[in-house]
What we know:
There is one protein chain. This protein is an all-beta fold. It has a single domain, classed as SH3 type barrels (Roll). The protein is 0% helix and 40% strand. It is built from no helices and six strands. A hairpin with a 2-residue loop joins β4 and β5. It is globular.
Amino acid sequence: MTTHDGPHEGSRPRAGWAPFLHEGRRVVLRYAIDAESSPHGESMTDALGTIVGSDEAAVRVMTRRGEVRVPRALVIAAKEVPPPPVRPRGPAGP
């Protein structure tokens, strides 16, 4: 995953600005959330899906549960992932 080591010269680029965060790419983004308002006190969550838009402020990811807007400043790690596996259909007819 692309991560951020800090603002020092020579550090790796911040994940939210990863060069592969473009429309049409399938990614998983780990990003910070408010632990006080999360159901189980989590401080991070993931968005797995296809990027449907992005700008300097946020990346929009279409997940199985709908579109998620992830502020780039909250992205902790990002990774491009392969297409989802093909699920077998039901049993073949006679």
